[in-house]
Design brief:
Strand content: 25-35%
Largest sheet: 7 strands, mixed
Order of helices and strands: HHEHEHEEHEHHEE
Mean pLDDT: 91
Low-confidence stretches: none
Number of strands: 7
Structural class: alpha/beta
Amino acid sequence: MSEQLYYDRSMDVDVYPHLKLALEILDPALPRVAVDVGCGAGRDALFLIERGFHVYAYDKSDEAIARLSEQGRAHLNQKLFPQVSHFEAFDYPSVSLVSACSSLFFCHPTVFSQAWMNITESLLAGGVFCGHFMGPNDSWARMGRGDLTVHSLAELQVLLQHGFQIVDLYEHDAPGMTLVGRQKHWHTYSVVAQKVD
């Protein structure tokens, strides 16, 4: 029930400002091809299609991909290519944009390095990464679940210093709510970074 409620509510909120910023700085000479990492019900994928992108979207949830396929059925296999997959297993095409909004920290730490390498290798020079990383103060990180990838600011800067120029990095460290109405403490870094080589 909470998964269905999450997908319903995720479609009712606006896309993140950093995704809009990513589009503003993207070189118009690059092909308009994007990957939506952990796409959920597809809010961002549909937003990108409306702006002329071919979007390869994946999520580990069958329900999420079924919803996206239904909502984007007019674009299926033309501009929208949804797939059930995990972070480390997805076969990335060459793209100008990778969007990983509120998803990449769900990648298991044992496979994060592989997943991140796949992302960086898929981006064309001048392409843009936009997404969120989880910080150590997040209440989910403090639970010691073991299945989340968590970065300190210093670790994140090291991660991005190889091949990227950070365009903007915003830290959010404050109490808040989840989309299903549960209270939690959020600690995330929202990043826009451009591939430089």
